Fold this protein.
Amino acid sequence: MGDVGSDRELVVGLALSAGQAVAWWFDLVTDAVTWMSGLDEVLGVPGADDAVVEAALTGLVAPLTVAAKTAPVWQDFELEQPCETPGGEVRWIQFRARISEHPESRRLVGIATDVTARHEQQQALTDLADRYRLLVELSPEAIVVHEAGQVVYANPATVRFLRADSPADIVGRPITDFVHADSVSPMLHRISELGVPGATSDPAEAVLLRFDGGTLDIESVSVRTTWEGRPAFQVIMRDVTARLAAAAALHYQAALVAHVSDALVATTADGLVTSWNPTAEAVYGRSAAEAIGQPIHLVVDAPLDPAAILEAGGVEQAVHRGADGGSLAVRVSVARMADGYVLICADETARRRAEQHFTTVVAALEEGVIVVGPTGLVESANRAAERILGVTEEQIVGLPTTLAELYDEAGARLPASNYLSARTRLTGEAQNGRILSLDKADGARIWLSLSCHALDSVGDGPSAAVVSFTDITERRLLDGMLEHEATHDALTGLLNRTVIIERLSRASRQHRSGLTAVLFIDLDKFKIINDSLGHSAGDKVLQVLGLRLSQSVRRGDVVGRLGGDEFAVIAHGTTSPEEATALVDHIRGELNRPISVDGRNLHIDASVGIVVADADDPRDGADLLRDADLAMYEAKTRGRGRLAFFDVDLRERTQRRLRLEQDLREAPRKDELWVAYQPIVDLRTGRATMVEGLLRWSHPRYGLIPPGEFIGLAEDSDLINIVGAHMLRMATRGIVDLRAAHNPDLLLTANLSARQLDDPHLVASVRDAMRTTGLPSGALCLELTESALMRDPASAARTLAALRDLGVRLAIDDFGTGYSSLAQLLTLPLDILKIDQSFTAGLGKSDDAEAIVTSVIAMAHAVDLTVVAEGVEHVLQLDTLRRLGCDQAQGYYLGRPAAAPDLDRRF
């Protein structure tokens, strides 16, 4: 889809540096954009219309194109932009471009590459690093890194272990400063054996020296690592003071305890049973006599190595067998004694069986279930919870529920104290159907419907709780789509009229500072685009303009489409009407930029009505929008591409206009319309040979309405055909009476508007008026303006020919103010040419005016047209017209318009 030829080297150079890519071009002079096939795939809209691809590409590369318009030739540009596909997926697109200078154009040549995978990898690495940093910083275990014997890092737990004030007290000092002399040599030996990165030492006990002079027993593991690219060692230290104390206590207590609730067994270092308490006899069904002296693994009928258990942490979950062969679920805890081991074997068979039943039932549920212990730590999660949350049970067990950030329906972060499990654990109260959202590890936000119940309400302290939840994300998305469709325009995606009115309500404005400016924007002559290029092209234009409008307003301004080609902008915080005017000028400048549709560059302008309201303005949203609409209409009446502010006078004029429009529909029936006649005098004889019928309206409330007001109203409201036909009937009846009373050869002239010329019933109306009144066809002359004839010359010529076939005479009115030429006069079946009064007014004052009138008379006579001069106000003008050879004239000097009975005797 682009011209690759002359830019091939640029495209190849860019593509080699970017991998698989699609080329595109942006003409910096015309703003036209083209691209190679495949760009729709890169942007995530495969098979999309060119308009969709063009709109997406234009918006994404806008920063490049703006910068490129002032940049030197061959400058390189690079930009990465996020692009959301219709399915909601976010892609990252890399745009690389250079400026190419051609004799006929200057353009930006670029390629687009999908770099989403790289972004996701970078984000994954960043997330991994952040999680590792948090784990290290929040770890309850002390972690230090030393390089060449010097400490280069210490986490907060290390500061606590050593009773230091800050990491600065530790970093930079030799690691041996903090290790007891007896532990230094074993430590150095362990790290000397870590020859390759990632090598790990076995856990070993050591003694740390604290800043307060005390010591701390720890268990440490050293790992060979790197620090800023250099070999180093990371040491992880666990406080084992309590464990060692507990082991010592167990050593002394085990010898004294004869009866405990768990099986208590003592063995030699080789695993031979030396002690077997009564509970052990009950659990295993073997007497002490049978057990003592036997290897422990034989007595419990299962593999059991105390040393191995102790080395693995001291606790083991195992399955033993009793004397009857039955299986026993046993939790084995091992402690070392001076001459052997002490084992506590807790029979958990019944509990484990109940847990198994519970786990089986919970695992089968489609609803996510998490058990939270009394301390707020997660104890278990079922498969549905793993699936919904995107984690494994092992990843969350033992962690506090507050690590998951929850958000309410308004998007606010939920305080930890308001988590369902926290409230239920403290109060025991159940909670049901709470709607919350959270972000999964992959960044996707999901919506959950949660309930929480106390698992064990016995006792006064916090209890465990079970949290159940279902994934309602799809339902929320559907609800969101329906809400969006209800509040947004389907074509442009802008807010619709209902939302605009709501945003303009008094409640919405009362908490705003400054003024609120409402801009009612109506595109000029948009109907021409739909009629000439089709509604599809019109829709594309509306989409482009909607996007431009959104991008041209200020942050916080509200943009909406009201319907058709009407848009609205709400500008809160406006400081003055001048600022609103500046905003309108900026918006019109953006809208005026050419739009390329179907190979054509279209230029769109707009008329804008403005309402400015403060917070105390009593008008509601609908009233403000109505008043802005009135102001826009006022702007239209002043010409295209204008703006107008609303004021009270405008409302009164509009109300008057609406009243007049309603009353004009009834005026013919109520006999409020009448015809005034103005004489047209023959300049050779001084007698009136014609009269012009002029429509007048006597309104019962407003009195005599000026023709300039109600005729324009009739044309705008499509009443002109009705009013015009009525006027023609009255005028023809009146002229028949005047002919009978004064001059049987008196002619009648009457005006036709441009709208009447388009009326398919015009010829029939004229025929009926003449037939009904008995007026000869040659006694009627219809006047048309130049602009009316030029709207559709071919159609006008057909209508004039049909009127001419009736015998009606035809005149061109206001000649010289429109677009006519002598050639056009020759092609139309005209009889009379009327010189516009603006030329007559200059006679006797201006030689130019006399020259123009002379030329017009000469042209008209050359094609056998009778010339009538309008607007004769004094004798000098009349004498000049006679001298120049003008045929007839009319004006106040010769006679004012009057009702038939009041006409003076100029016949």
About this structure: Confidence is low (pLDDT under 50) at residues 15-19. The two ends are 77 Å apart (CA to CA). The chain has 34 helices and 37 strands. Residues 168 and 308 are 41 Å apart (CA to CA).
